[in-house]
Amino acid sequence: MDRFRVAVSGDFKKPDGSPSFPEFDLSPLLNHEQVDLVYLEDESPISAAQLQRVDALILLGNQITSDSFAPGGRLSVIARFGVGYDNVDVAACTANDCALVITPDGVRRPVAVSILTLLFALSGKLMVKDRIARRGPDGWAEKTRHNGVGLVGRTLGSVGMGNIGRELFRVAQPFGMTFIAHDPYADPGQAAQLGVELVELDDVFRRADFVSINCPLTESTRHLVNRERLHLMKPDAYLINTSRGPLVDQSALTQVLRSGRIAGAGLDVLETEPPEADDPILTLDNVIITPHALCWTDQLFQGNGRADVVAVMKLISGELPTGIVNREIVSSPVWVDRLAGYRSRFA
Questions:
Q1: CB within 10 Å: which end of the chain, N or C, has fewer?
Q2: Options 207, 244, 271, 338, the catalytic residue
Q3: Which string of DSSP letters, residue by residue, matches 19-55?
Q4: Measured between alpha carbons, how far is residue 19 from residues 13, 104, 231 in Å?
């Protein structure tokens, strides 16, 4: 009888073969007597040949397309390391009786903290103050020209009130800000508990002093932050995006930043990653840019890894993993039969 086979995508290893994230503890799977754990070759998209005899895949950034599934394959779960899944063809997962699982618990606090990191840096004029301080006496003499912005009474607006949006408002509670958000799926009761006023999308851009983008990238949300909405913002307002770059029309953002139409931006994500070295947004001094890694901490990787391992362990036991994206899979007869088979073989 075949053992339960777990694959880890090849981008979890560096070119020298060492782990990319040592904090990711795979020992519960490595030590499981009924599990074979393998690392795939680092390819994107991942081929069907690599996944032919795999029951569960722990996935980082490599792509999964419809061609990643082999006819008659047995892949039952893809445990994505994080909450973004724009590198996965969700419809193909469902069509091939495979659950896609994400790790909201692992990213919730680290991403919320990264948003606040950008908010604090922007409001305190951290980048320009660092720059002038390094110039010695001449730079220090300029410090009165760069006063920051206090947060008490300012408005923090979020486009999205999901896992991360709600956590952002939780951790921002002590700073005396006014909270507004737009999310057509938001629970009004949860919003009220957090002191968040639910408003129309354009109102977030009109009213907020800090606009934070916290929604998934889909075809309907691509360029959701467009020229028109950027021009709704106050001249002294800031845009923060830690979600996905293509949510923002970067050309339009570059124009409003260059003209001073808004005060600045904090971006952990860009429309093209990595950007070309001559991308004009990189030349602007009123934007903070980090390489889609601001939330990368030891605790993030521990949390994401733990959630992925737990999802796989639940599958081995024939239990339903948490964090399933394509919820319709739980009623798929093939998937239900697989779950029952795992339960009888390994539990």
A1: N
A2: 244
A3: BS-TT---HHHHT-TTEEEEEPP--SSPPHHHHTT-S
A4: 4, 23, 45
Number of neighbours of residue 297 by Cβ within 10 angstroms? 15
Q: Is 273 known to be catalytic?
A: yes
Rounded to an integer, the average pLDDT of 109-119 is: 97
Say whether 43 is catalytic: no
Question: Is residue 233 a contact partner of residue 255, using CB atoms and an 8 Å limit?
Answer: no
Residues 219 and 250 in one domain: yes
Domain residue limits at 52:
4-102+297-346
Q: What are the DSSP calls for 113-178, one per residue?
A: HHHHHHHHHHHTTHHHHHHHHTTTHHHHTTGGG------TT-EEEEE--SHHHHHHHHHTGGG--E
Residues 51 and 167 in one domain: no
With beta carbons less than 8 A apart as the criterion, state whether 9 and 62 touch.
yes
Residue 271 sits in the same domain as residue 122: yes
Q: What angle do CA 100, 102, 103 make, to 5 degrees?
A: 160
Within this chain, do residues 90 and 183 fall inside the same structural domain, yes or no? Answer: no
Asked whether residue 113 carries a pLDDT value surpassing 60, the answer given is yes
Predicted confidence band of residue 347 (pLDDT cuts 50, 70, 90): low
pLDDT digits (tens, 9 = 90+) for 119-133: 999 999 999 999 999
Task: Give the model confidence (pLDDT) of 200-219 as tens digits.
Answer: 999 999 999 999 999 989 89
The pLDDT tens digits of the residues spanning 53-86 come to 999 999 999 999 999 998 888 999 999 998 889 8
Asked if residue 206 and residue 175 are part of one domain, the reply reads: yes
Closest listed residue to residue 308, CA positions, set 107, 141, 156, 82 = 82
Question: Percentage helix, strand, coil, to 5, in the chain?
Answer: 40, 15, 45
200 is an active site residue: no
Q: Which of 5, 108, 292, 338 is catalytic?
A: 292
Q: Which of 231, 273, 327, 328 is labelled catalytic?
A: 273
